[in-house]
Amino acid sequence: MPTFKLLSQKPRRGLLKTPHGIVPTPAFMPIATRGAVKTLTTQEMKTLGADIILSNTYHLFQRPGLEILKKHNGLHAFMNWSGPILTDSGGFQVFSLTRLRKITPEGVTFNSEIDGKKITLTPESVIDTQFVIGSDIMMVLDECPPWPCDYEYAKKSLATTLDWAQRSKNHFEKRVKQKKLTPTKRPLLFGIVQGGTHEDLRKESITRLVKIGFDGYAIGGVAVGEPKNEMKRITKMCTALLPKDKPRYLMGVGKPEDIKMAVSFGVDMFDCVIPTREARHGQLYTTKGVMKIKNERYALDTRPPDTSCTCFTCKNYSRSYLRHLFSINELLGLRLATIHNLHFYLNLMKGFRK
Amino acid sequence: MPTFKLLSQKPRRGLLKTPHGIVPTPAFMPIATRGAVKTLTTQEMKTLGADIILSNTYHLFQRPGLEILKKHNGLHAFMNWSGPILTDSGGFQVFSLTRLRKITPEGVTFNSEIDGKKITLTPESVIDTQFVIGSDIMMVLDECPPWPCDYEYAKKSLATTLDWAQRSKNHFEKRVKQKKLTPTKRPLLFGIVQGGTHEDLRKESITRLVKIGFDGYAIGGVAVGEPKNEMKRITKMCTALLPKDKPRYLMGVGKPEDIKMAVSFGVDMFDCVIPTREARHGQLYTTKGVMKIKNERYALDTRPPDTSCTCFTCKNYSRSYLRHLFSINELLGLRLATIHNLHFYLNLMKGFRK
């Protein structure tokens, strides 16, 4: 089987082979920022039917740090997850979380949010960090420009990003050779399409990345505050240009309706904090829309959150009980809401794959 | 089978029959203060081998309140727990948590911590509340005097407590008749021995309670700040005087070594916040003592918290990972620590029963 096997083009369905297992696409990747999907065990992730999870190189690099990850031979054993893991490169976090960062042709320098220490990320160091993590799918270091971003800045930024992409690929292949990784053990490397909302830059980005050659292509620089129609336009044009035989990953998107739209454009992979973060705020995704479980109207409601849902939460607990848990700030409430929302998202993807 | 079947007197082992199942003793009751064992599902409580849990009448009365509990036909369905539940009377909470409470012969009046509303608890109202909760084992309303407590106050307080005990029993029997509860559906009612650290008052308390006649007897007014040798002395003298054919419950105790001591004196039932509360502070009970998992010495330690433990946490996670979860304030850490500590306590009891 090739790394990515396209089972059907319309609707687009596929199988993505990674060192830790096969991911049926379209796929949603729950977020385990620092090596844990907030409130849940990996056993629960398995039960929920998650085929792959996403973790954050930037956060893992800071805590627990590479020494601890090395000691466990990587993130899989550390967090007790035997399935595939995709890690972002940390670029997005550096550009969204840190101040006084400095971009040079070499890489990006910033001060640690934990101890203020100066840290430099380069395309090469980020690949090496992901090898320590033991990622199944690695992302290249990119600059993710903010929205809005004028043409000149976007063009300049893209040049850096493309240069970094080539260096990432070179370094990745060097390491694969050095480590003598067989095809089944070799992780995948994804390039990231940038170019802001400028179609010619996006096009150039795709042409150049495809020339370098990656196992998959991510559409970056979306879900950064742009209007929804801009996100839609960019996603549509990028998916039309990207090679059909490689997986496409739309970074950081999104709401169920955004995912549905992107799937119809031919996107294969998604990640988003929405299901888990909104769960912790008492916002439950249901077939009838978002339910604000803290609302007093649910105080005496003995029905499950979603009467047609088969998740652990809906099979065992009432709206009234969930509301009670949120009203007393009981952590079990956050857990039950997280389980429900992830079930909703993962079930949505299952529906697309049918 | 009688309500309490003594299987062996030395070591003391028994079986306590309740409407929701049989509890082998000595038993430890994990605390579900407001209808949830903090961070855990009731499914996890079952897996851990909890035979009975404890919930707090005072807290449930305030939140979710009786209307919501009635709507679910009681706490069992509300929290999705099909096993036995013991509820305290709320007396301890009134005396330890509220200010400006007023004790009259009728009952105790205080202001709600939630909305400031004036609330009066009487022996009768507390029984009725426990019927709404659907408790398997009800506790009578008592006054729990603080430590230290002089003889005169303890004597006066005991007189009130004994009067309330008689009224509780009368009201309980009246309700059992009204509700036409068959022996298998009839909850149990426990009296509470008070009298401070004064042996003659404790003795009087036991004589009078036994004369009234309860399904079991609790030793109250301990674990309220008194020195350990006082707790030991009172427990020892009370267990020696209490009827051998009824279960004895030592309220709010304690550390594993205290439980071990009390079991040797013939105590059958325990509850304590220690395993769950200390778990949330990163204090893990192990066969080799308490492990402070946040300690830096565990940063690179890939061993399970307790190498000889068979709990879910120890079977799946390292000290290093647990420490990481606590260092990033990840709720999963609180869960895994709670599972471990409850396993330790429940396993300790299993050991006593062998």
- CATH-defined fold name of the largest domain in chain A: TIM Barrel
The major pleated sheet of chain A works out as: 8 strands, parallel
Query: How many helix segments of chain A?
Result: 14
The pLDDT mean of chain A sits at: 96
Q: Write out the strand line-up for the largest beta sheet of chain A, numbering strands in chain order.
A: 4-14-13-12-11-10-6-5
Q: How many structural units, i.e. domains of chain A?
A: 2
Q: Supply Rg of chain A.
A: 20 Å
Share of β-strand residues of chain A: 15-25%
CATH level-1 class of the largest domain in chain A? Alpha Beta
CATH architecture of the largest domain in chain A: Alpha-Beta Barrel
How many strands appear in the DSSP assignment of chain A? 16
Give me the CATH superfamily of the largest domain in chain A: Queuine tRNA-ribosyltransferase-like
**Largest interface by Cβ-Cβ < 8 Å:** A-B, 36 and 36 residues
Low-confidence stretches of chain A: none
Amino- and carboxy-terminal Cα gap of chain A: 21 Å
- Roughly how much helix do the residues of chain A carry, as a percent range? 40-55%
Can you describe what's shown?
The structure is a homodimer of 354-residue chains. In chain A, strands 4-14-13-12-11-10-6-5 form an 8-stranded parallel beta sheet. A 3-stranded antiparallel beta sheet of chain A has the order 1-2-3. In chain A, strands 7-8-9 form a 3-stranded antiparallel beta sheet. In chain A, helix 9 (228-241) packs parallel to helix 10. The first copy, chain A, is 43% helix and 19% strand. Chain A has helices at residues 42-48, 57-62, 66-71, 75-79, 91-97, 123-133, 151-178, 199-212, 228-241, 256-265, 274-280, 312-316, 319-327, 331-353, and strands at 4-9, 12-18, 21-25, 27-29, 53-56, 85-88, 102-103, 108-111, 118-121, 137-139, 188-193, 216-219, 248-250, 269-271, 283-286, 289-292. The first copy, chain A, is α/β, with parallel strands linked by helices and 354 residues long. Chain A has 2 domains: 4-272, Queuine tRNA-ribosyltransferase-like (TIM Barrel, Alpha-Beta Barrel); 273-354, no CATH class. Chain A has 14 helices and 16 strands. In chain A, strand 7 and strand 8 form a beta hairpin. The first copy, chain A, starts with a strand and ends with a helix. At the A-B interface, helix 3, helix 13 and helix 14 of A face helix 3, helix 13 and helix 14 of B.
